[in-house]
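Hello Y.,

Per our agreement to keep a running log of every chain we model this quarter, I'm adding this entry. I've kept the format consistent with earlier entries: sequence first, then predicted structure.
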Amino acid sequence: MKTERNYGLLRSIAMVLRIISWVALAVGVIGAIVVLTLSLPGGLKFGLFLVAIIAGICWFIQLYASGSVLVLLMDTEENTREMASLSES
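Predicted structure for the entry above:
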């Protein structure tokens, strides 16, 4: 049985969220590297470095998880629809 893919826009949004998550991670890493090149006192430099890394990782996890949850919900709906059609026949 061939199933059609629904929710094209929602699948696109999920993909965009996953792409943006990688961009956020890259920006966090680049921001951390920039902080290391600044001429700041040692403690402040290390603190800002940690903040940039942790912020980038948090944004990555949040955005990537949001995109993955959308895909999971769409796949659950698709599987539920297939099981319902199989049980009717």
